Structure to design on (489 residues):
């Protein structure tokens, strides 16, 4: 009887051990194993996390965008979406009359395989990649750049180039000296950035606000207008962008607006200890800052102030919500500005849930690295490079900018055989436009390509705010901001 009672327990334990061994085998650390490169082809190693299939889909869509400008280009995405998670997806770009192909491959970051492991593995393979793409955030861009800089020996070719995608920090702290250093100097002379920097974003946003009569700060009786700047100390992106906003506001001192009036604006910077908080309510350090600002705003009802929120969506949303909860019509005399931490998708596509304008009734001015509303007017087939309505298009077009520059460098003019030759071509004017996309330092050239989005709540008589809001998109053209789209939703 005793054996009969114990036997089921033993069987359960044995089955559990078998399952545990099977799972351990399935999820054991896999070495970084690069795919081979066919002779003569060029590999672009896209380094990104395993949890980013949607970003990979957008990158594949970006390759198809090349066909809108160059219809003869062929794109093969037959291996772009594979069933096995450990496999290396790729999308292949080629042109008629050339045997060499560009193979854009996703090498996945995980807890077991990081930037250093992929760099070491790809450096040991012959040939080495022509270039790396990565840096979806500043910390990952820093890690990848440092790994590339430390690796000096590459089989079968020159040291690859690095294309940073969406990391915007101007500088990082050098761990040896403790002093700030340009992010592009981490892998010097071989790094290019496809997005705009924090400095460029702050400059564009402030320049736009100062040109918009119904958004620019104003004051009466000779007082200086106020710009309330909040910086979250636990977020390096926020700290850097806040400093850039303060500097750009100070540059406006003494300048005249369109009516010839000099507007003096005094930036007040508050450094907030941490950004952790709920979806809707400010955390204690945020509330402390707000409790000082709100009475100041109330004491000058005829002024218009600027609220600078260099942050990602969560802290920005709860700060705006708290101001609007205190006074629903405060958006008539307070304008919020930020960089790219708040996305068009969040406000427009997902706005009913993520950004209900009746609760967040303050105009918001933010930055986009490309046109977020470049939707195709018809429902063309996906392989033509059409972009479907509602989902923002700025990320796809940003990726397409980088891929186009690489492809033009590879296929136009002298044949590219290694990264050194591609580097030389990227530092000369484009054979198509006669201009350089990147500066000599590798930054994306400013003055063209920047976009501004303005979310405008609709205020009605009786102190009401409409459920619908207006979304205006502007592009910089020849030094002026031109409206290109207005949507109401």
């Amino acid at each position: 009887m005793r054996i009969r009672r114990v036997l089921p327990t033993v069987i359960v334990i044995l089955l559990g051990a078998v399952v545990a061994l099977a799972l351990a085998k399935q999820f054991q650390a896999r070495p970084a194993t690069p795919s081979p490169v066919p002779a003569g082809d060029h590999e672009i190693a896209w380094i990104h996390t395993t949890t980013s299939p949607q970003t990979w889909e957008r990158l594949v869509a970006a390759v198809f965008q090349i066909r809108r400008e160059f219809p003869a280009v062929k794109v093969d995405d037959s291996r772009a979406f594979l069933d096995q998670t450990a496999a290396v997806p790729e999308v292949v770009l080629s042109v008629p009359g050339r045997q060499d192909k560009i193979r854009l491959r996703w090498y996945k970051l995980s807890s077991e395989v990081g930037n250093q492991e992929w760099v070491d593995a790809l450096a040991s393979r012959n040939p080495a990649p022509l270039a790396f793409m990565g840096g979806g955030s500043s910390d990952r861009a820093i890690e990848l750049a440092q790994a590339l800089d430390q690796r000096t020996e590459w089989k079968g070719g020159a040291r690859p180039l690095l294309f940073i995608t969406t990391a915007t920090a101007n500088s990082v702290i050098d761990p040896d000296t403790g002093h700030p250093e340009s992010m592009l100097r981490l892998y010097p002379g071989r790094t290019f950035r496809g997005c705009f920097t924090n400095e460029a974003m702050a400059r564009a946003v402030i320049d736009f606000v100062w040109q918009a009569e119904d958004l620019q700060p104003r004051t009466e009786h000779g007082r200086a207008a106020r710009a309330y700047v909040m910086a979250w100390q636990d977020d390096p992106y926020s700290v850097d962008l806040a400093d850039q906003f303060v500097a750009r506001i100070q540059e406006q001192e003494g300048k005249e607006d369109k009516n010839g009036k000099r507007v003096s604006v005094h930036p007040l910077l508050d450094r907030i200890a941490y950004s952790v908080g709920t979806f809707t309510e400010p955390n204690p350090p945020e509330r402390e800052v707000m409790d000082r600002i709100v009475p100041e705003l109330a004491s000058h009802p005829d002024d218009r102030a600027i609220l600078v929120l260099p942050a990602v969506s969560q802290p920005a949303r709860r700060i705006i919500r708290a101001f609007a909860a205190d006074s629903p019509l405060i958006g008539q005399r307070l304008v919020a500005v930020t960089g790219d931490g708040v996305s068009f998708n969040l406000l427009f596509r997902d706005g009913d849930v993520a950004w209900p304008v009746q609760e967040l009734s303050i105009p918001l001015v933010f930055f986009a690295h490309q046109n977020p509303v470049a939707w195709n007017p018809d429902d063309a087939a996906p392989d033509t490079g059409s972009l479907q309505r509602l989902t923002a298009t700025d990320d796809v077009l940003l990726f397409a900018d980088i891929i186009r520059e690489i492809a033009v460098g590879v296929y136009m003019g002298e044949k590219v055989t290694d990264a050194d030759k591609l580097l030389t071509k990227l530092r000369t004017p484009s054979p198509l436009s006669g201009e350089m996309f990147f500066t000599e330092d590798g930054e994306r050239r400013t003055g063209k390509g920047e976009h501004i989005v303005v979310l405008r709540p609709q205020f009605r008589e009786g102190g009401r705010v409409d459920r619908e809001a207006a979304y205006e998109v502007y592009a910089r053209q020849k030094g002026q901001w031109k409206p290109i789209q207005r949507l109401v939703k």
Summary: The chain has a mean pLDDT of 89.
